[in-house]
Amino acid sequence: MASGRCNMWVAGLAAVCVVLLAATAYFSTRPTTRRADLNYAFDIVESFGDKAARASKGSTSEVCDVLWELHYPSFEWPGAPHPFQGRVDNFVEGQRRRAVTEVISCLRVKTGEDLGSDPEKWLLKYGSQSVKEDLHIMKTRGKTNLSNQALHSTRR
User: Tens digits of per-residue pLDDT, 71-120?
Assistant: First the structure.
């Protein structure tokens, strides 16, 4: 009977050891993952600034190409990648929106017009044919907020 009790204690301690080992492995890799996420997020945000700077030097069509590059990730579709969560996601998205606003400001200066803050209106009026086609594809798949009437009136 004592040997049965001893076996139960050994099995219990072995189970505790396995759980502790798994928890240690999990928590030891977690900071590394978070650091990698932050580095990736900062790289993406830096690219937003680079794109906005590139837009300030380009033609109206080139500025719209940059605007499309910045605006495209805002579309939602099944299976859309979301590499970040929580505060990091909010930070990256906020910086993307800030860059879109900067590029739209650049378009206002270059064109002397104010089409508002909706990137799609700018893209439809001043974007290249390929940008307009890409936007049309996104619209027909129901991934933008722009009305069909506005989309078709600019394609004529």
Answer: 876 665 555 666 777 888 888 888 989 999 999 999 999 999 999 999 99
Distance CA 44, CA 50 (A): 10
Query: In this structure, is the dihedral angle defined by the CA atoms of residues 101, 102, 105 and 107, taken in order, positive or negative?
Result: negative
Q: Alpha helix (H) ranges present in the chain?
A: 2-57, 60-71, 86-111, 119-126, 129-140, 148-155
CB 55, CB 119: distance < 8 Å: no
pLDDT digit string, tens, across residues 9-63: 777 778 877 877 887 776 666 666 677 778 888 898 899 999 999 998 989 989 9
65/139 Cα distance (integer angstroms): 17
What is the domain partition of the chain in residue ranges? Answer: 2-155
